[in-house]
Structures are given as C-alpha cells and as structure tokens.
Amino acid sequence: MEDVITLDYGSGGQKTAELIDSLLVPAFSNPALNVLGDGAVLEGNGQLVFSTDSFVVSPWKFPGGNIGRLCVCGTVNDLCMAGGLPKYLSLSLILEEGFPLSCLQEIVASISEEAARTGVIVATGDTKVVEKEKGDGIYINTAGIGFLRAPFLGKDRIREGDRVLLSGSAGCHGAAVMMARAGLVRTDSAKPGNALVSDCAPLTKLSAAALASGTIRLMRDPTRGGVATTLNEFVENGPLCIELTEAAIPVDPPVAAACDLLGLDPLYCACEGRMLAVVDSKDTDRVLDALRSTPGGEQAACIGVVTRSRPGCVLVTTRLGGRRLLPKLSGLQLPRIC
Amino acid sequence: MEDVITLDYGSGGQKTAELIDSLLVPAFSNPALNVLGDGAVLEGNGQLVFSTDSFVVSPWKFPGGNIGRLCVCGTVNDLCMAGGLPKYLSLSLILEEGFPLSCLQEIVASISEEAARTGVIVATGDTKVVEKEKGDGIYINTAGIGFLRAPFLGKDRIREGDRVLLSGSAGCHGAAVMMARAGLVRTDSAKPGNALVSDCAPLTKLSAAALASGTIRLMRDPTRGGVATTLNEFVENGPLCIELTEAAIPVDPPVAAACDLLGLDPLYCACEGRMLAVVDSKDTDRVLDALRSTPGGEQAACIGVVTRSRPGCVLVTTRLGGRRLLPKLSGLQLPRIC
Question: Which of B128, B138, B329 is the best residue to mutate to test the A interface, defined by the most A CB atoms within 10 Å of its own CB?
Fold first, then answer.
C-alpha cells in the first residue's frame, strides 16, 4: 500500500479492496462484517440488515437525480441486495460553509420524496458544518436498517451452471455524472426524452420480484467499479468463473456514445438502480419474466453463466467472437461518482 | 435563516436548531424522528434504538483521544442516552487525498480498541476518498443500533422537584480540543498527570448504573453546545425551569484555566463522556451513589433542580449569590469540536 491515501483508494476497485482487506477488516473482524455484503445481517430480536454509505458525488446534481435522491437509493439498495426490506434511514449532513440554503432545500426535498416513494422513514440524523475549502458543498451519510426477508444469500451459494441476470442497462449513472461534470449535459434536464440520465432508483420492487420468482444465490447492485468489478467480487479467490456474452449486456446508445467520448467502458461505470442476480438456471426464465414485468426492469437480461473454465475470473465473449478477461477495476476510472 | 450555510449552523446551538426545526424535521416528520432524542426508538422485532453522528473534529488527535475513539463513544453514548444497550456500529470514512496511511492506521486501531472495550461490533462500512482541499484529512460517520432497555425516557416525563445530575466535570473535551487547536497542548500527551485531557469515554456503564438505581426521566450527553445548551433543550417551550447552582457544577481547574485563556465558558464547552440525568428527587442520593461508584462517575454531582420559576429557561445561581439566565448557545463558540 501507498504511504498516503490517493484517490485510487476510493475507486471501488482494487485499491479500495486493498484498504478494506488489509486495514479495515482485520481491525474489526466479526461474522457480520467479514462477509462484506452490501449490508450486515445482524442477530438480535429477529434478524436485521444494516448498511451505510457516504455520498460525495460531484456535481451534487446530475441528469436523473441529485445527491439527495442518491443517498436514499444507495442505502436502500444495499439493504435490498442483502435480502432486507428497508425500513429506517439515518441522515447525516456534512455541509461546507457557504453552501446555498436553496440547494440544501432542494436536496432535502428530494430525500423526503424518495424516502416516501421507497417506504422508508428518516428516523435520526446529524448535521455538521465545516469551513470553506474543507468540504465540497455537501457530503451526506445515510445508514439503513431493514428486516431480513431472504436469509439465504451469499457468494458461497453460487453453483456451476447458474445464470447471471442484470436488471437493466449498464453504466447510466456513471456516464451521466461524468457528462455533467464535464459540462456536457444540463444537470436539470432529467425529463422524459433526455437521452442520458442516471438510473438512480430504489431496487425494492425488483429485488422482491426476483426473490419471489426463483432461487436467488446472490444479488448485488453494481455501483462504484460497475458490472465488471461487482462480478469479479462474486468469483474472486474461488473455483468458479463467470462468462459473459457482450452482445447480451444491455447498454443504452447514449451511454455508449458518452463512454466513447470520455474514454470509459460502460461495464466499469456505476449503476445506481440496477441489480445483478445470480440465479439457479432452472429459474432463469421465471426470474427474468418477473423482473421485466416490474417497473425499471423492462430491459432485464441474462448476460452470462457460471462455469469452471477459469477459476476466479470474469470472461467476456465479444461481439466479434473473441474472448477476453474482464478484470476488476484497477486504479481510478471515475472519482466521486456516488 | 441565512441564504447560505454559515459555520453557526454547525454549532449545536440555536442556528443548528433552526436548521433542524425549519428544514429537516418538516421534511421527514415521523414519530421516531420528531422526539429529537439522541437516538430514535424504532418499532420492529422488539424495540431498537438507532443513532448517527458524523465526526469532523479538528485536529483529529487531541489530548485524551482522537477522532477514532470519538466516533465510537459519540454514537455509543447517543444510544445509551436514548435508553439503548449499544450493539452494532456502521463505520463510514471520507478520506482526503494525501492523508497519511499511518494516521489512518492509528485511527482504525483506536476504533477497534474502543469498540472492543465498549462491547459493540463494527458490522458494516463504507470508504470514500475526495480530492485534496475537498476535505480535511478524515471525516468519519458512525451509525449505531442498540436494543432498548429503558423504554420510558423523555422530556415530557420531567416533573417539578426533579433533580439534575451531572456525571463528571464539565467542558473537558471542548477545552482540550481548543487548546490542541491553538497549539497550546501536545496532542499525544494523554498520560496520567497531564492536566487537560478530553473526557471522551463510553457512557454504557454509567447509564446502566443510573437506570438500575432510580427513576430516570431523561438522560442526555452534553456534546456540542455543552451543559448549558443541553439543559435548555430539556425545558424550552415548556412550563418548567431548571435552576442550577454554579458552585455545585464540577469544573476541573485546568479546564477553568484553559477557558479563561481562550475566553470560553465551560458550561458551553462540549463533553464527550459525561451524562446529564433528570431524576425523581426521592432517588437523587441512590442514583448519585451509583454513579460515583462507577468508573468515570467519581465526580458526579447534583447540580440543579426543576422548578416553575421561569418557564422554558435555565437559571444559574452564581458563586456570588446572583441569579442569571443561562441561554442556549447562540452562534459559534467552538467549530468542529466533534
């Protein structure tokens, strides 16, 4: 590891994993934490799911959402992916001196709206203010509690032959934020017909639909590091391999165009309203049908299969018929995407 | 309210209350949040207590602790004060590019040590990195879950004649951080015999001792805004008054000296390991004895009484026999104290 923190450590890719594995997990090792799921499953009075995320996205407003909407969806989605039904959020604001109150009001209104839509309540909170140039307008942390409804999810449940489903097109959030940051799209243009918008949305209904329609091994929302990094986390250090079919992966044309322009790969761009699910192959069609008939899941697709061909790796068969390794994000592609 | 966020909004005093009351509570109104306790009590499978705090203390290391120790104690104490037995923490780091890894290791070690000492586990986490000058080394958010063990606490339970207890001397944390910030004490001098150290400590045992020995109406740890601001929150907008006796309030001589030097009032300086408790007068001696025989509570004192003499206010009888109003902290005394 480096001697000082570099932006790479926040990428969601290999450097982030290094920081977590070599510093954080050894320091706090316990069964709830060590599985490194999107949320921790807690023993208590019944089983709880607990998750947290800090949001430092820049700019704070982007096509299709803002940091307020994101801070609800991000934590709600982590709870859903861990098999929880989201119930309660905490909300902690770190405001930079000089941040316009009107912007804070807009963000708070988005949080309130998104929480109501998603069926969670903000139960507790905290507000801190730091001096100018010790922050960047606004950072938000949310933590969430849900009640466990799917107790049997985990990497260790994945089997050869399982199918990999993606609930919608890849990379929309990352591409939208990067275009907004580059000043190439209007941040207030989240209207129907606008070509490039974040997919930021709660996965409450999609995850419920999946769980109700088949045997789900594992669910995860591909945020920082994108689809490629998340799938690597499914199989790394294990005997299994995920083989993807590039042509089967839904990528919206405006996202593909934006990625071309910015030199990015949509498979490494964050989603904030998509889920990856590994399912028992016999249930593939049923789960796909359930996702496609749920709002937000219309483009759901089977994008790959679990094999043993190259243990611990993700392979992709390209449109031209070649096969290449799809490694974990290494270093920094998109800083401060969420 | 102002058009932009000023540092006052983070003071823990009137401006912070204004932001919470006029923007945040209306946006998220629900029974768990609206009581504005240190933690929210949640209905679910059994009753949970849920709390969050972001820590932006500057400098990150101070006599008697560091941001790591503080981020455990702060949230643990909020859970204790809300009547919970702390069980689980989330840990979310916002790191500034360039922050020395050795400092992060020191902080993580403190978190680990303090969590173990306090009987909580870090169950889930998140790490973000922001560019240089978009942060200040390290900010940490923790959220905590506890199980409710004292379901009947609240401002509405305070009665005329109740006594106000303080578990130890006032203002140590605030004074220690301000002296460290001014470069007037060594930040690594948390040794026995060092005159001025933060009181940063978990309140798990002290709160348990109090609850087990008498009828407690309400507990609160006087952090930002100090003893004066917290007591104002107990009685504001109600028919009752708190009358304090200045001579009864324990203030360590080094804290008094530091406050004189810096132009501060110890009653407005944050504590991070003290609790205020309003108790039924018939139980005063029993609760005081219990606190005094618990480590950290040796200096516990009865500092005041609940009356009706000036509704909604906190009064203090000075050493010279005069009586003055002790208002809520207005504006900024100590920025970034926690």
Answer: B128
Cβ <8 Å between B4 and A52: no
Residues A101-112: pLDDT tens digits?
899 999 999 999
Residues of B whose CB is below 8 A from A4 = 97-101
pTM of the model: 0.91
CA distance A274 to A202: 9
Q: Domain coordinates of chain B in residue numbers?
A: 7-148, 155-325
Task: Give CATH superfamily name and number for B7-148.
Answer: PurM-like, N-terminal domain (3.30.1330.10)
Q: What is the ipTM of this complex?
A: 0.91
- What does pLDDT average to over chain A? 90
Chain A residues with CB inside 8 Å of B48's CB? 44-45, 48, 145
Q: What is the dihedral of CA A71, A76, A81, A87, to 10 degrees?
A: 160
In chain A, which residue ranges form alpha helices assigned H by DSSP?
14-19, 25-28, 31-34, 67-81, 101-118, 172-181, 204-213, 226-235, 253-262, 284-292
CATH T-level fold of B155-325: Phosphoribosyl-aminoimidazole Synthetase; Chain A, domain 2 (3.90.650)
Q: CA A33, A38, A44, A47: dihedral to nearest 10 degrees?
A: -140
A91 touches chain B (CB under 8 A): yes
Distances in Å between the Cα of A209 and the Cα atoms of A80, A132, A216 are 11, 46, 11
Whether B88 sits inside 8 A of A40 (CB atoms) is yes
pLDDT tens sequence across A128-157: 989 999 999 999 999 999 988 888 899 999
In chain B, what residues touch A335 (CB-CB under 8 Å)?
A: 129, 131
Distance from CA of A204 to the nearest CA of B (A): 19
Q: Is the pLDDT of residue A194 over 80?
A: no
Which residues fall within 8 angstroms of residue A283, CB to CB, at 6 or more apart? A213, A214, A215
Q: Is the pLDDT of residue A166 over 70?
A: yes
Q: What is the nearest CA distance from A213 to chain B, expressed in angstroms?
A: 26
pLDDT value of residue B332: 65
Please tell me which of the candidates B42, B126, B147 has its beta carbon nearest to residue A88: B42
- The 10s digit of each residue's pLDDT in A268-302 is 999 999 999 999 999 999 999 999 999 999 999 99
